[in-house]
């Protein structure tokens, strides 16, 4: 998925917004992770996207949204049969730049995990392997991370 940073509150730094400019492919899964510095709000704009944040799980269509508080392990996946898109609202601002930097890393194909891990660390992003992940992958026929 490719992202575009469309807004950032430059005066206060309270909010940043990133929009998926390419579709979230059917079967795609974002590896479970948590944010140590910001809260994140996802708004589905097209298709169906599944979310798990803490012990909450939901599949949302266009107009649906979910909050993902900092420190709470979460993941998202395309839960439908068509490509999907969403908007991410980030507070405080800053993490929206992660999407830009990740896109730069993937220009020539999939980068080594070490490069992604280094980028994630710079933004306070931590990956996890929750016990519920294999069931989620099986239920939605998802492509496992990695």
Give the secondary structure arrangement, pairings included.
Elements: E1 3-8, E2 16-20, E3 29-35, E4 39-46, E5 49-53, E6 56-60, E7 65-68, E8 74-78, E9 85-91, H1 96-105, H2 113-122, E10 125-127, H3 133-140
Antiparallel strand pairs: 1-2, 2-9, 3-8, 3-10, 4-7, 4-9, 5-6, 5-8
Helix pairs in contact: 1-2
Describe what this molecule looks like in 3D.
- By secondary structure, the chain is of the alpha+beta class.
- It has a single domain, classed as Jelly Rolls (Sandwich), CATH 2.60.120.10.
- 19% of the residues lie in helices and 38% in strands.
- The protein has three helices and ten strands.
- The strands form two sheets. A five-stranded antiparallel β-sheet has the order 1-2-9-4-7, with helices on one face. Strands 6-5-8-3-10 form a five-stranded antiparallel β-sheet, with helices on both faces.
- A hairpin with a 2-residue loop joins β5 and β6 (56-60).
- α1 (96-105) runs antiparallel to α2 (113-122).
What are the salient characteristics of this protein?
146 residues, alpha+beta, 5-stranded antiparallel β-sheet, 3 helices, globular
């Amino acid at each position: 998925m490719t992202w575009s940073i469309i807004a950032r509150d430059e005066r206060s730094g309270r909010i940043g917004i990133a929009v998926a400019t390419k579709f979230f492919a059917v079967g795609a899964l974002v590896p479970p992770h948590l944010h140590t510095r910001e809260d994140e709000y996802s708004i589905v704009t097209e298709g169906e996207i599944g979310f798990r944040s803490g012990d909450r799980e939901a599949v949302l269509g266009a107009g649906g949204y979910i909050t993902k508080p900092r420190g709470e392990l979460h993941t998202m996946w395309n839960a439908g049969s068509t490509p999907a898109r969403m908007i991410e609202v980030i507070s405080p601002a800053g993490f929206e730049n992660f999407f830009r930097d990740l896109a730069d890393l993937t220009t020539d194909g999939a980068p080594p995990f070490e490069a992604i891990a280094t980028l994630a660390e710079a933004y306070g992003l931590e990956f996890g392997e929750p016990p519920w992940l294999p069931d989620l992958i099986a239920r939605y026929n998802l492509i496992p991370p990695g």
